[in-house]
Design a protein that fits this description.
- This protein is an alpha+beta fold and 134 residues long.
- The protein has a single domain, classed as Glutaredoxin, CATH 3.40.30.10.
- The protein has 5 helices and 4 strands; from the N terminus they run ααβαβαββα.
- Helix 3 links the parallel strand 1 and strand 2.
- Helix 3 runs parallel beside helix 5.
Length: 134
């Protein structure tokens, strides 16, 4: 009887783990974050998407679910990181163009290629990238 209980416990735990792994990321904190600007310049991928946000920004808060859903899917095709404005403040040399949240910073092999600022342009960019992968 103990063996049957053990098997059932393992079975239900494995189902729970599998379900957890299948759930999309729905919170900014669930993504890998960059906490120093020098780390941005050290990225070596051909294309990296960085979402720059503030946990104190009402717009960033309202976009969280939509942005995280899209970034979660894009993460299969590109390197994706987030930067919390409050956590990176005055840590390394910030690109001069990055002054507002929310923004997307596109990095290619350690070079900042483009910065997309504002909620509507950010959402449009993410939607365009989603269309490309479909």
């Amino acid at each position: 009887m103990n063996t049957l209980k053990t098997i059932l416990v393992i079975f239900f735990l494995s189902i729970g783990v599998a379900c957890d792994q299948a759930d999309p990321k729905s919170n900014y904190s669930e993504f890998d974050h960059i906490d120093h600007w020098d780390d941005v310049y050290a990225l070596s991928s051909e294309k990296t998407i960085i979402y720059y946000y503030s946990p104190f920004c009402d717009t960033c808060i309202s976009l969280q679910e939509e942005v995280t859903n899209q970034l979660d899917e894009l993460e299969e095709y590109y390197d994706v990181f987030l930067i919390d404005e409050a956590m990176i403040y005055e840590r390394g040399e910030q690109p001069a163009e990055v002054m507002s949240v929310p923004s997307i910073i596109l990095v290619s092999e350690g070079e900042v290629d483009e910065i997309i600022k504002g909620s509507i342009p950010v959402l449009e960019y993410l939607e365009q990238e989603m269309e490309k992968i479909k």
